[in-house]
Amino acid sequence: MKIDFILNRKDVKVDCPPEKRLIDVIREDFKLMMTKNSCYRGECGSCIVQIEGAPVPACQVPIFSIRNKQILTIEGFSGTEKYLDIITAFKEANCMPCPFCFAGKVFSVDSLIDGRRSPSTTEIMSLLSEHPCECTPTSRFIEGVKIAYQNREIRGELLK
Amino acid sequence: MPEAYKDKRFITDYYSAGMTVIKILRAPVQRGTITSVYIPNLPEGTGVIQYKDIPAEKEISVFENKIPLLCDGNIRYEGEPILLLYGKDERELQILESEIKIEYETDYTILSLENYSQEQINKELNFSRGNIDKAIDKAETILEQQFTTSRQNNYDIDPQGAAAFYSKKKFEIVCATQWPFNVRDNIAECLDIPKKQISVNVPSMGKNHGGKLWYAAIIACYTAIVTSITKKPSICLIPKTDAILFTPGRAASIINHKTALDNEGKILSREIEILFNSGAYPILTDEILNRICFSAAGVYSTQILRITVKSIKTNAPPCGSLTGMGFYQSFFAGEMHCNSLAEAAEIGPLEWRLQNLATKQINLPFGWESKRPMQLKTLLTTVADKSDFRRKYSSYKLTAKKQNNLYGKKRGIGLALCCQGNGFTGKVEQNGRYSVSVRLEMDGSLIIYTSAIPDNMHTAELWCNLAGNILEIDSENVRIETADTELVPDSGPSLYSRNITVITQLIERCCNAIKKSRFRRPLPIEIKRTYRTPATTGWEPESFNCKPFSTISWGAVAVETETDPITLMTDIRGIWFAADCGKIINEETAKAEVENEIYRSVMNSMVKPPVFSYLKQNIPLTPVKSSIFFPVDIEFIKSRETKPGGIGELPDSLIPAALSEAISMALNTEIKNLPSNPKSLFRQIEHRKKVEAENNED
User: Fold this and answer.
1) Minimal CA–CA distance to B565: which of B666, B487, B677?
2) pLDDT tens string B131-163
3) How many structural domains compose chain B?
4) Which of A60, B580, B619, B691 is deepest in the core (most CB within 10 A)?
């Protein structure tokens, strides 16, 4: 089955079985290896990508369902201003996630700080509970997310 | 994204189209015999490997223990690998799997430790000192208690698996392992080829707690066998469910304590019996027995002592190397028992501990004599003062006794004190001759060669900073080479804080040696150092003699909780942790490590016990993580030990006891088993009510 979609702002086409998972397409057909595959049940958070701007575990998405949709992986997201809000905050708080959960945590944080108010500790803990990787100390991660929100607020992104 | 991340390849990143994929067919019964195996005609490029097809050695070795690669016909646990199926893709293998017919004759199974038979005892360790009977006669109070701990699964987040490549008569193995040389040696035995024909590379890995210690060698052997047949690259990735169920978890245990106290509440004698469930194939048995025996009586002055530890074989999957192994079970039971002893002596738990603490190391149950005085009292008083333990304990105790209703959340506070042995017990380190080498290049950069896998990014950072500081090199110019068994020396297994103690010491020695000769010898300079246990070390478990570990870290914790008496859900109000763990190289890094481990231990102590059944697929694939933030206060007291010590295993030994004690107090019930989840708490409360009702009737 041939499917067209937009991957990292480029029009792409893939020919594969319709039920093939998006995570496998991203990794096997497009060699975008920074999005990791692990549980294949949407529980570990390591395969999160953005579909039409929302964070979604790519292992739960059959390829037929993304026709003409915009997919953003961590490779496409890195270098953007939104990405830098998060990364500079993680560096400042000394809580850089490990390579395995990096993409998932970055996209989840991006979604959390894109609201109109500063995320609460409870909201950040709730986010962290969906990312079981133990690479980031909890208190530092909370601090990192709050700094990321401030970075975005300072940039004026939230007022747009 | 961070530039360094682009090169990080996990084992799943090694899969590419055209590789032979391996699928493991597992036993659906807990115990039995395979009566027949029907294999259909297989298409080209696919194949099946059974026990009889393994070219040479059919078992892998882990020190003195062995475990078969595939089932030899007698099934000993549910999920035991029966045969390997290989082909070009997963989908094809699924179809073939459905056509393979295996018939079994089932046998009775033994999963629990109760009513074990003599044949089930795999190994036993007995230690006795002093006359127990005399002490019992003199005793004012005698307290007997039984504690139990459940098996805990290994929830490593990163994938488990291996890949094999063959070219120019050499095997290149990529394997997510904490012990690359064990993988190499076992493959050499399995294929009956020289070790020099095998190189083992380790891909990027997440934080591991022992799940990739010896189990990785089994997976690597599978890929090596298939590649030796097909001469094509092969890969075996373990599905998440299998990884959780079958990688070695923490052994379940039953622990019996009998303690005699004098009229002041001081310990006269202790009798401790520990049974631990080693599963179908006991692995690392000697190490587990030594550790349990070492930690059984805690850190309290005990002159008259009897300890019996038994490793019991059952039809559960093999258990073994999960962090804090042995110590976790021992300290939970020991510290909970201390609280009951304090209650029996009508003294507060803090005061009882202070009264019974071993003040000198020679007074410890394990009798180890060290020149450096211990600081157990300082540790205890530090956490007690910081947590306001005395006031809270009195207040919560009173409230718990007075309030016999279900209104409002109930608070509690608990204390625990423990130690952590760093590295393996003496014999393993003595026999191993494990090394590290460091090379100073002509361009001024430094390379550390070691097969020890840094357990997290902090360890790698710590080694780079340490080497950089000694040789006055920017730590960015220091590189750690762990990749290939052909390049790096055998540094032994990466477990039990060995990375922080043994490997850090070796790196330090190499760098100091380079520092001495760097301006006298031309570059490059490469120095290799081998670990030698101090002359005083040489643990004799039967006599409790000499030092079992090169260094010991000490820790104390206070945990304050709030439990809903209706739902029995517990929130943590605060955790205060203090440790004496030798030289701290980077305090921030150490605190981050401890905080992570505290959060993990809290969840381990409260999550539900594991699901055994392989056929029951709906198990959670990730650890249950708290969505409640709680404050953690960490303090490292000034140590008199000059060597760095481990800290990562202390929370695992401390938190379960302190947390359970706090919940016990809040609910005014004795908790005697782990985990302390609502279901288990409900059972224990019901049991208490039943006992109370029976007593009232009497």
Assistant:
1) B666
2) 999 999 999 999 999 999 888 888 788 889 999
3) 2
4) B580
Kindly report, residue by residue over B47-84, the tens digit of the pLDDT: 999 999 999 999 999 888 899 999 999 999 999 999 99
Taking contacts as CB-CB distances below 8 angstroms, the residues of chain A near B9 are 33
Residue B271 within a domain? no
Helix (H, G, I), strand (E, B), or coil: what is residue B32? Answer: strand
Q: In this structure, how many other beta carbons lie within 10 angstroms of the beta carbon of residue B242? A: 16
| Same domain assignment for residues B400 and B458 | no
Would you say residue B335 lies in a domain?
A: no
Closest residue of B to A28, CA-based? B16
Using CA atoms, how far apart are residues B633 and B253, in angstroms rounded to an integer?
A: 31
**pLDDT for B157:** 81
Is residue B618 predicted with pLDDT exceeding 70?
A: no
The answer to whether B8 faces chain A, any CB pair under 8 Å, is yes
Touching B: A residues 26-45, CB under 8 Å: 28, 33-34, 36-41, 43-44
In angstroms, the CA B83 to CA B102 distance is 10
Residue B554 belongs to domain spanning: 378-419+550-698
Spell out which residues of chain A touch residue B10, defining contact as CB-CB under 8 Å. 36, 99-100
| Interval B566-601: pLDDT, tens | 888 888 999 999 999 888 878 888 888 899 889 888
Residue type for position B382: T
- Asked whether residue B485 falls in the same domain as residue B607, the answer is no
Q: Do the Cβ atoms of B555 and B497 come closer than 8 Å?
A: no
The token duo for A30 is: 């497009």
The verdict on B404 and B445 lying in the same domain is: no
Say if CB B47 and CB B22 are below 8 A apart.
Answer: no
pLDDT > 70: what percent of chain A?
97
A120 touches chain B (CB under 8 A): no
Q: Considering chain A, what is the average pLDDT of its residues?
A: 91
How many residues make up chain A in this entry? Answer: 160
Q: What phi and psi, each to the nearest 5 degrees, are found at residue A22? A: -60, -40
What's the confidence (pLDDT) of residue B460?
A: 82
Q: Show Cβ contacts of residue B565 under 8 Å, excluding neighbours closer than 6 positions.
A: B406, B409, B410, B667
Does A20 lie at the interface with B, CB-CB under 8 angstroms?
A: no
Fold assignment, A81-159: DNA polymerase; domain 1 (1.10.150)
* B423 confidence band (pLDDT: 50, 70, 90): confident
CB-closest option in B588, B600, B627 to A134: B600
Same structural domain for residues B386 and B477? no
Out of B180-194, B234-248, B421-435, the most confident range is B180-194
CATH for B522: 3.30.365.10
Q: Testing the interface with B: which of A110, A134, A142 to mutate, by most B Cβ within 10 A?
A: A134
Q: In the CATH scheme, what is the code of domain A2-77?
A: 3.10.20.30
Q: Do B622 and A74 touch (CB under 8 A)?
A: no
Cβ neighbors of B52 (< 8 A, separation 6 or more) are none
Residue B10 has its nearest CB partner, among A96, A100, A129, at A100
pLDDT, residue B360, reads: 73
Does residue B125 fall inside a structural domain? no
Q: What is the b/e burial string over B255-272, where b = at least 16 CB atoms within 10 angstroms of the residue's CB?
A: bbbbbbbeeebebbbbbb
Cβ of B637: how many Cβ atoms within 10 Å? Answer: 16
For tokens 């450096």, the residue is B372
- What is the C-alpha to C-alpha distance for residues A132 and B627, in angstroms, rounded to an integer? 11
**Domain identity same for B695 and B643:** yes
Of A46, A99, A135, the CB nearest to B5: A99
Say whether both B490 and B627 belong to one domain: no
Residue B41 lies in a domain: no
In chain A, domain spans: 2-77, 81-159
**What backbone torsions phi and psi does residue B680 show, to the nearest 5 degrees?**
-65, -40
So what's the pLDDT on residue B660? 94
Minimum Cα–Cα distance from B8: chain A residue: A99
